[in-house]
Design goal:
By secondary structure, the chain is α+β, with helices and mostly antiparallel strands. The chain folds into two domains: 166 residues, no CATH class; 119 residues, no CATH class. 28% of the residues lie in helices and 28% in strands. Strands 1, 4, 7, 8, 9, 10, 11 and 14 form an eight-stranded antiparallel beta sheet that branches. Strands 2-3 form a two-stranded antiparallel sheet. β2 and β3 form a beta hairpin. The radius of gyration is 24 Å and the shape is flat.
């Protein structure tokens, strides 16, 4: 795989209509928002989850029946995964002795003098630096999200820590959002006891939260220096762009309403260090509502200033 030799900065525009783009579990699953300004928020974790889901979907066949040298697109953080089992796979594949796990309590070793302390779990978990380094490289080679976003894999069986070359910010809505709350009814109950209480009416009441409409902007960064450390290459980068463009198309649910990527603007630097500050490039992509109460993407004007770009910077992709 070709290594990255350029820095990239990108702007992602996406919208939601009559849905909840990212509920806050600490607030009854209400759409996340900035309490001071009223602007909606979507966490970077939520966006990464959708990228992972898309990659897992399009590379599912590779994961089920990988050919030698092609098993590169598994997903480390997936639903119901036991992460320590993934770490153990690295040690098994490399025929390394996984560090033992033990309690933090002190105990006597049968073959050691009385009073000598037994190693704690933290001490045993560390393993040798060489083993951890090999395991970390194996995890980067086999898991797309590890070499893309990084991961902390030092718990349990130690595979070290990886700082990912691709980072995303929280997405923020262009205009303040309104979070609506709807009462919903299910024409059924779960148990006989509930049915008896309702004397056969058998209705269950619930609530649903939606945003009538919101256009969100997120910023992202790709470091070629960190990409070389994790093995993130040109093929991975192209898959990332594909995921950002199409991730909402394969993440439909009643709760999310209509969500879609409306724009992906990628600034490519000629050098690895970069040829302009990221924040100056991000200013070149802006969106403003054209009506007092925007309720559709057509109610916004998106402006992209691609003239007189800084020397060494190219706008290489525009979607939307």
């Amino acid at each position: 795989m070709m290594a990255l030799n350029n820095r990239y900065d990108f702007v992602l525009l996406f919208d939601v209509k009559d849905g909840n783009p990212n509920g806050d579990p600490d607030a009854g699953n209400l759409p996340r928002l900035d309490a001071e300004s009223g602007h909606g928020l979507v966490t970077d974790v939520s966006l990464k989850r959708k990228v992972r889901n898309f990659v897992g979907l399009v590379k599912e066949q590779d994961s089920r029946d990988p050919q030698p040298g092609e098993k590169r697109f598994e997903i480390y953080v997936r639903e119901k995964a036991i992460l320590n089992n993934q770490h153990q796979r690295a040690y098994s594949a490399l025929k390394l002795d996984a560090p033992e796990e033990a309690s933090e309590e002190f105990a006597l070793e049968a073959d050691e003098p009385a009073g000598k302390k037994k190693k704690t779990a933290k001490e045993k978990r560390k393993g040798s630096a060489d083993d951890v380094d090999q395991a970390r490289k194996w995890m980067c080679q086999n898991f797309f999200d590890v070499r893309t976003f990084g991961a902390v894999m030092s718990l349990g069986t130690n595979c070290g820590q990886v700082r990912g070359p691709v980072q995303l910010t929280f997405a923020r809505s262009v205009a303040p959002i309104v979070a609506l709350e709807h009462s919903i009814t299910r024409m059924a109950v779960a148990t006989e006891a509930e049915a008896e209480k309702q004397q056969g009416d058998n209705r269950t009441m619930g609530r649903k939260h939606t945003v009538p409409y919101g256009l969100y902007i997120a910023h992202g960064f790709v470091s070629s220096f960190l990409a070389k450390q994790t093995g993130f290459g040109e093929e991975d980068l192209e898959l990332l762009w594909q995921a950002l463009e199409n991730m909402f198309e394969h993440d439909r649910s009643a709760a999310r309403g209509e969500m879609a990527t409306r724009g992906l603007y990628v600034f490519k630097h000629d050098s690895e260090l970069g040829n302009a500050p990221a924040h100056e490039l991000f200013k070149r992509v802006s969106a403003k509502p054209t009506t007092e109460i925007p309720r559709d993407f057509e109610n916004y004007k998106v402006t992209v200033n691609d003239t007189d770009l800084p020397t060494g910077v190219t706008l290489i992709r525009r979607v939307g």
